[in-house]
Write a structure and sequence with these properties.
It is a single chain. The chain is of the alpha/beta class. 43% of the residues lie in helices and 15% in strands. A 5-stranded parallel β-sheet has the order 5-6-7-8-9. A 4-stranded antiparallel β-sheet has the order 1-4-2-3. The longest helix is centred in the middle third of the chain and has 21 residues. It is globular and about 50 Å long. It starts with a strand and ends with a helix.
């Protein structure tokens, strides 16, 4: 689901660091995947949530720029998608891929061929049920079989992972962990689905707070289930790059943080500040609180 608009930049110094940072901040508030292309210089589409990526577009005065948003509210022109009353609860993520298996097969074969000679990891988004995991794994097997039959060189060692973004996946993590190689928790979507608050709706977006104890408890559930099966867990979303949340996530046993480059120094500094026993105590205390406001206040007191 995609929508785009073209503009000509008139600022005399172009899209320099300060406006680029403001643009990235605005883009990060949306569920859609937003990209920027410098049509004048014919640059590749840049991730609008990454300041380095946006700056790499080298947008100068009078350059024509295309901004594209691909998310849960507009149909992508290259797929036949029916209009939905609530696309965030509709055909998206793995559901969309399994609806258009011809596109999925082309993508999987491309991944497998590009990963030849390397350790390839493939992660599927918006998994809600065990049956979806079986279905996407079957698609991977089919793509492998086609490449094998054609004699093409492709990646032999492949890890299959899923995004844990909906409560059903978190609650069934003990079952799902037996069928995948890793989890990546998407806290932005997990928070909005858990708290029934659309984070793109200004009227309720503040409710979709990943520091809410209900979300933190689901994160703990996922990590414990994965570790029980010897699997690792990553976490992406705004929470991963928030230094306030770092001790809680460490205390819960998170294995990998995924964040924008600018967030790394502060998170690393926070990690160095606490011992293993301290973060476990912080996590236990945070999960015992009753609201996101209380959790934030507690973590702010700990950070001082």
């Amino acid at each position: 689901m995609s929508v785009s608009s073209e503009v000509v930049l008139r600022h005399k110094v172009g899209l320099h660091a300060r406006p680029a940072a403001l643009f990235v901040k605005a883009a990060s508030g949306f569920a859609s995947r937003i990209t920027v292309e410098n049509l004048t210089k014919r640059t590749a589409a840049a991730n609008a949530r990454s300041i380095l990526s946006v700056l790499s577009a080298a947008v100068q005065m009078n350059d024509r720029v295309r901004i594209t948003a691909d998310g849960g509210d507009k149909p992508a022109p290259y797929l036949s998608i029916i209009s939905e009353m609530n696309p965030f609860l509709g055909v998206r993520g793995a559901r969309l891929s399994l609806t258009h298996t011809d596109v999925l097969q082309a993508q999987l074969r491309a991944l497998l061929r590009a990963g030849a000679g390397h350790n390839l990891k493939i992660m599927f988004p918006m998994i809600a049920t065990l049956q979806e995991v079986y279905a996407v794994r079957e698609q991977v097997d089919q793509a492998r079989a086609m490449l094998e039959a054609s004699g093409a060189n492709y990646a032999r060692k492949v890890e299959i992972g899923i995004m844990v973004e909906v409560p059903s996946a978190a609650l069934m993590a003990d079952v799902l962990a037996k069928t995948v190689d890793f989890f990546s928790i998407g806290t932005n979507d997990l928070a909005q689905y858990t708290l029934a608050a659309d984070r793109t709706n200004a009227g309720v977006s503040k409710l979709a707070n990943a520091l809410h104890p209900s979300v933190l408890r689901l994160i703990r559930m996922v990590i414990e289930a994965a570790h029980a099966q010897g699997k690792w867990v990553g976490l992406c979303g705004e929470l991963a790059g928030n230094p306030l949340a770092t001790p809680v996530l460490l205390g819960l046993g998170l294995d990998e943080f995924s964040m924008t480059p600018k967030a790394i120094p502060m998170v690393k500094q926070t990690i160095r500040h606490f011992s293993a026993s301290e973060v476990r105590n912080i996590a236990e205390r945070a999960l015992a609180l009753s609201s996101a406001t209380e959790v934030r206040a507690y973590l702010e007191s700990v950070a001082q």
